[in-house]
């Protein structure tokens, strides 16, 4: 049985999520503030974490940062804001995905399934792939850009892996969604743009732009001519 930690201070929401998730066969713990969340996280193993940002005692951003220092457990942020800069901050902190309130429970369940599946997949052992100064160690999950190790979230790593495997090929947002987030993902194509923007900040150095926007089509990883 997969175990989920819900970090949410609104009792009606946390109880609703608990009932729905338990109905789906998950085991659920609930933390109503940031301090309690880190305590439960330190005492238990969880397969996935649902994290509200607006928490008493300790912010959701700080909770996410502390969790990511110790574990690569998938974190789905539940946020009331739809501002892109907040989403980018969350990706930089290590969140794997986000969903904006109000949300449909079916969409959240789909995102949970995708996150759990990707936590199990992308585990090619003993392989290193490279392209134009980027090296991915698929076993150790290390990323080296221009001989400098950089930190990527799990989804960013998977996205970069997919881009390198399909280098110099135009990839549509739909194709990227299907291969990274899964065919049952219902969140829309905007998430691709958010992750591409975040990935560019970490991978594209000033002297070398590699991730290109192909207007009307999608994205391509290629060296500048």
Radius of gyration: 18 Å
Q: What's the overall geometry?
A: globular
User: Segments where pLDDT lies below 50 for 5+ residues?
Assistant: 122-126
Strand order of the largest sheet: 2-1-3-4-5
Percentage of residues in strands:
15-25%
Number of separate helices: 8
Secondary-structure element series? EHEHEHEHEHEEEEHEHHEE
Mean pLDDT: 84
Q: Roughly how many Å apart are the termini? A: 51 Å
Biggest sheet statistics: 5 strands, parallel
Q: Into which percent range does the helicity of residues fall?
A: 40-55%
Q: Based on helices, strands and strand pairing, what is the structural class?
A: alpha/beta
Give the tally of β-strands.
12
Question: Can you offer a commentary on this structure?
Answer:
The protein has 225 residues and is α/β, with parallel strands linked by helices. The chain is 42% helix and 22% strand. The protein has eight helices and twelve strands. The chain has helices at residues 11-23, 34-43, 60-70, 84-93, 105-120, 154-165, 173-181, 190-203; strands at 3-7, 27-31, 48-52, 75-79, 97-100, 128-131, 134-137, 142-145, 148-150, 171-172, 211-214, 218-221. The strands form three sheets. Strands 2-1-3-4-5 form a five-stranded parallel β-sheet, sandwiched between helices. A four-stranded antiparallel β-sheet has the order 6-7-8-9, covered by helices on one side. A hairpin with a 2-residue loop joins strand 8 (142-145) and strand 9. Helix 4 packs across helix 8 and helix 6 (154-165) crosses helix 8 (190-203). It is globular, with a radius of gyration of 18 Å. The N and C termini lie far apart (51 Å). 31% of the residues are buried. The model is unreliable at 122-126 (pLDDT under 50).
